[in-house]
């Protein structure tokens, strides 16, 4: 007997699961930022069912109640926490960016070209109204081309 929770049995219902997947992503800590996307967008993590079971909801408050001052303190603290989180995320992102660059640099080669070198030049992919026209057998490079003049460290004038 087939298991109704099996992904193969529910292959046509993938769009019904998108909200659950989106919620899981929004409430998961991101490696780059060190925070959940929900916290960065909303200033707090969303309340889930377990939170409602464990904690009692707070009563509504108006400006005439004694809780108003606590709410104002909370809002001030929240603004401060968001500012601290913003700086933390910015620092964390810079550190992560450096580690990503180091990982990328391990697989790249620093090529130096000089006037007179023979090189292959990539042919730009043709576009019509921002739509790329791809041809499977279209040549991707032309050459060899000789470098005639250096305009900047990575820009040259070349000829066929």
Overall description:
Strands 1-4-5 form a three-stranded antiparallel β-sheet, with no helix packed on it. A two-stranded antiparallel sheet has the order 2-3. The chain is α+β, with helices and mostly antiparallel strands. The chain contains four helices and five strands, in the order ααααβββββ. The mean pLDDT is 81. The chain has helices at residues 18-26, 37-42, 49-54, 67-105; strands spanning 118-122, 127-128, 131-132, 141-152, 155-159. The protein folds into two domains: 13-105, no CATH class; 118-159, no CATH class.
Oligomer: single chain
Q: How many angstroms separate the termini? A: 68 Å
Are there runs of 5+ residues with pLDDT below 50, and where? none
Which H/E pattern describes the elements? HHHHEEEEE
Number of domains: 2
| Class derived from helix and strand content | alpha+beta
Mean pLDDT over the full residue set: 81
**Can you count the helices?**
4
As a whole number of angstroms, the C-alpha radius of gyration is 28 Å
Helix content: 25-40%
Largest sheet entry: 3 strands, antiparallel
Described by the principal axes of the CA atoms, the overall outline is elongated
Number of strands: 5
Q: Which percent band covers the strand fraction?
A: 15-25%
Instruction: Give me the side-by-side strand order of the main sheet.
Output: 1-4-5
């Amino acid at each position: 007997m087939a298991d109704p929770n099996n992904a193969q049995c529910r292959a046509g219902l993938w769009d019904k699961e998108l909200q659950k997947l989106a919620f899981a992503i929004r409430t998961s800590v991101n490696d780059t930022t060190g925070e959940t996307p929900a916290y960065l967008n909303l200033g707090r993590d969303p309340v889930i069912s377990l939170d409602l079971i464990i904690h009692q909801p707070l009563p509504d408050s108006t400006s005439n109640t004694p809780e108003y001052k606590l709410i104002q303190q909370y809002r001030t603290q929240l603004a401060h926490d968001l500012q601290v989180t913003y700086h933390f995320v910015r620092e964390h992102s810079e550190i992560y960016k450096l580690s990503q660059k180091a990982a990328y640099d391990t697989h790249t080669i620093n090529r130096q070209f000089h006037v007179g070198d023979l090189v292959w030049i990539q042919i730009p992919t043709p576009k019509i109204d921002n739509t790329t026209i791809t041809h499977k057998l279209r040549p991707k490079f032309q050459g060899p081309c000789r470098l005639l003049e250096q305009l900047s460290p990575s820009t040259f004038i070349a000829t066929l």
